[in-house]
């Protein structure tokens, strides 16, 4: 059968192979492209009117000043506002006044610098279009020698020398802005262990007036959290886990109650005597326990997350944050994960029928990147 379909219909919608170096419909690649040129330059108000330029200068300086105010708010909140002070924020509800002021201050510091830089570039910095022919990428000695001159010329065009208010406001905002970042990185890692993490409620309570440690007059009982009831050894069955606090802490009403609870939190569990390994760690775990009942700090030694998962069949404690795994049968040694130190053990015994702490933790609790003593 003869196909009478026109050739144009065969090629419609079909990719046509082109010879390399050719463009369909042009007959090939042109030797050069015409320079489209630049659109006519439109002058800004600040380029033509000195009053508009001064007005733009004041706006930029005001924005940099806003950044300085935000930084000062951050510093005042960081050093002077108690983290326990509460305030009401619409939509959010009641929250820490310190956190609100820190967030608002840092936001103003960033926003002021950002908006100030944008306004400066759009109103006062040169915006004339220019064309620079491509040249070899090797810098000549003349280019190096002219670098300083070019920078000085750029500063002159940016009107730094003519407008000292602008320069002062910009430098002031840039000088103050890094302070919140330095405080966040260096100052918010927490106190040194010798000042804080080596002292928990098991050692004694810290007097809020003098800052001194008041040691307990008797051995502290282990209390269930949150019921605040003392624990008898018979109540701790094989496979059960108790979240424990020291006696008196749950009844405390001081401003540092949450901090003390976080440091003193303990996990209590019971194993069969034969489940402990015959190693120095396993023998210590039994000696510091009572009839197979052992107590360990709940704070992971990696970054301080709460260890809260106990696997009865393997006797492993698991931190849910980064999967650090501790072996209860061998003094909570690390067997998996990023933690580098075992969980500190609380030595326990029995008095008047209840479990008590025979002595406090012998090393600081918490992350292992702090110094520890055996």
Characterization of the model:
- Its main location: membrane.
- Keywords: 2Fe-2S, Cell membrane, Disulfide bond, Electron transport, Iron, Iron-sulfur, Membrane, Metal-binding, Oxidoreductase, Respiratory chain, Transmembrane, Transmembrane helix, Transport.
- InterPro entries: QcrA_N, Rieske_2Fe-2S, Rieske_2Fe-2S_sf, Rieske_Fe-S_prot.
- This protein has 374 residues and is α+β, with helices and mostly antiparallel strands.
- It has 2 domains: 121 residues; 155 residues, Rieske Iron-sulfur Protein (3-layer Sandwich).
- It has 10 helices and 14 strands.
- Strands 5-6-7-8-13-14 form a 6-stranded antiparallel sheet, with helices on one face. A 4-stranded antiparallel sheet has the order 9-10-11-12, with no helix packed on it.
- Strand 11 and strand 12 form a beta hairpin.
- Helix 3 runs antiparallel to helix 4 and helix 3 packs parallel to helix 7.
- About 6% of the residues have low confidence.
């Amino acid at each position: 059968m003869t196909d009478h379909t026109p050739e144009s219909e065969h090629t419609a919608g079909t990719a046509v192979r082109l010879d390399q170096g050719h463009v369909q419909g042009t007959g090939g690649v042109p030797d050069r492209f015409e320079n489209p040129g630049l659109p006519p330059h439109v002058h800004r108000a600040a380029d033509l009117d000195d009053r508009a330029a001064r007005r733009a200068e004041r706006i930029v300086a005001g924005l940099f000043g806003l950044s300085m105010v935000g930084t000062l708010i951050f510093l005042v909140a960081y050093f002077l506002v108690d983290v326990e002070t509460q305030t009401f924020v619409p939509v959010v509800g009641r929250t820490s006044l310190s956190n609100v002021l820190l967030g608002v201050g840092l936001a103003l510091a960033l926003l002021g610098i950002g908006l100030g830089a944008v306004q400066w570039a759009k109103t006062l910095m040169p915006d004339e279009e220019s064309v620079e022919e491509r040249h070899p990428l090797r810098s000549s000695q003349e280019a190096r020698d002219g670098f300083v001159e070019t920078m000085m010329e750029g500063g002159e065009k940016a009107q730094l020398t003519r407008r000292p208010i602008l320069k002062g406001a910009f430098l002031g905002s840039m000088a103050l802005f890094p302070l919140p970042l330095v405080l966040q990185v260096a100052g918010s890692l927490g106190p040194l262990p010798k000042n804080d993490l080596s002292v928990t409620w098991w050692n004694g309570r810290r007097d809020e007036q003098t800052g001194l440690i008041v040691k307990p007059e008797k051995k502290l009982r282990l209390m269930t959290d949150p019921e605040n009831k003392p624990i008898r050894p018979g109540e701790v069955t094989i496979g059960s886990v108790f979240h424990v606090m020291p006696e008196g802490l749950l009844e405390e009403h001081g401003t540092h109650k949450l901090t003390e609870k976080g440091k003193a939190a303990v996990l209590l569990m019971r194993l069969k005597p034969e489940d402990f390994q015959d190693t120095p760690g396993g023998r210590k775990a039994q000696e510091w326990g009572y009839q197979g009942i052992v107590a360990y700090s709940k704070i992971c030694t990696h970054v301080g997350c709460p260890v809260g998962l106990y696997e009865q069949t393997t006797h492993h404690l698991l931190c849910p944050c980064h999967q650090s795994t501790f072996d209860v049968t061998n003094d909570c040694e690390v067997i998996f994960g990023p933690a580098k130190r075992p969980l500190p053990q609380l030595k326990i015994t029995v008095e008047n029928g209840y479990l008590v702490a025979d002595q406090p933790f012998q090393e600081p609790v918490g992350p292992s990147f702090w110094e520890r003593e055996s």
